[in-house]
């Protein structure tokens, strides 16, 4: 299956507009969004931008209902009242309300989750570490990938708000083993990259993030991935 991946958004509504234009070209059968929709450098008081970005996300969800959505740490910080860099107390109510609207716009059979699976590809904001699976998934379910994904998606704040969880992990900076690296490919955002990069069984695609002064860090491309062959490329309008 051809999949278009929307990486960390961080108050860039144009990303959903561009992704929608690409989807209308039928280059992919479905999209996956790695979220982190709110928060960016010096934007804490621009509540209108928060609202505009979520409105674009909701519009995208309604237009492309087969899209899969993966919670990021910035999204969940507002639901779980966990302060972190970029958190906007001014926009907190807006984010909470718009996240509920986004949840309502997403079909019940494709809810927003920490981890999503298509074929032998796992999508999550930060990545699924082998140690995390061993720590939080019953041993007898370890080899059943669907069961592992289901168990992880049941977890709450206490288990997820730490550096090794699928919303916080940075596998680019770790030598720890990922879950089933020979069987599964993982696609992650969270860590700003200069370009879409594959290391081991992990593709990192957060290439829309910026420096504090607004300069782009990465290539501002979307990942286009074949989930069966694992062939991939970056694509933009």
Structural overview:
There is one protein chain. This protein has seven helices and ten strands. Helix 1 runs parallel beside helix 2 and helix 2 (47-63) runs parallel beside helix 4 (92-105). The chain is globular, with a radius of gyration of 17 Å. It has helices at residues 14-23, 47-63, 73-79, 92-105, 130-136, 145-152, 157-160, and strands at 2-6, 30-33, 68-69, 115-118, 121-124, 185-188, 197-199, 202-204, 222-226, 232-235. It is 28% helix and 16% strand. By secondary structure, the protein is of the alpha/beta class. The chain has a single domain (2-235), classed as Purple Acid Phosphatase, chain A, domain 2 (4-Layer Sandwich), CATH 3.60.21. A five-stranded mixed sheet has the order 3-2-1-9-10, with helices on one face. It has a five-stranded mixed sheet with strand order 4-5-6-8-7, with helices on one face.
Strand order of the largest sheet: 3-2-1-9-10
CATH topology: Purple Acid Phosphatase, chain A, domain 2
CATH architecture: 4-Layer Sandwich
Computed CA radius of gyration, to the nearest angstrom: 17 Å
Structurally, the number of domains stands at: 1
């Amino acid at each position: 299956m051809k999949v278009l991946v929307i990486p960390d958004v961080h108050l860039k509504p144009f990303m959903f507009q561009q992704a929608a234009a690409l989807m209308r070209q039928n280059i992919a059968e479905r999209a996956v969004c790695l979220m982190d929709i709110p928060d960016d450098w010096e934007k804490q008081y621009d509540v209108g931008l928060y609202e505009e970005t979520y409105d674009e996300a909701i519009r995208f969800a309604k237009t492309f209902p087969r899209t899969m959505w993966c919670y990021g740490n910035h999204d969940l910080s507002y639901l779980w009242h966990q302060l972190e860099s970029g958190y906007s107390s001014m926009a907190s109510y807006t984010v909470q309300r718009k996240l509920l609207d986004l949840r309502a716009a997403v079909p019940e059979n494709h809810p927003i989750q920490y981890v999503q699976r298509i074929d032998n590809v796992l999508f999550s904001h930060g990545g699924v570490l082998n140690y995390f699976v061993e720590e939080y998934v019953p041993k007898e379910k370890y080899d059943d990938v669907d069961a592992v994904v289901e168990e992880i998606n049941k977890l709450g704040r206490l288990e997820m708000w730490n550096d090794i969880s699928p919303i916080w992990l940075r596998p680019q900076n770790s030598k720890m083993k990922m879950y089933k690296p020979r069987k599964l490919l993982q696609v992650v955002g969270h860590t700003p990259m200069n370009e879409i990069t594959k290391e081991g069984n992990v593709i990192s695609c957060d290439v829309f993030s910026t420096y504090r002064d607004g300069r782009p860090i990465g290539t501002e491309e979307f990942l286009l991935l074949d989930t069966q062959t694992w062939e991939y490329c970056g694509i933009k309008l």
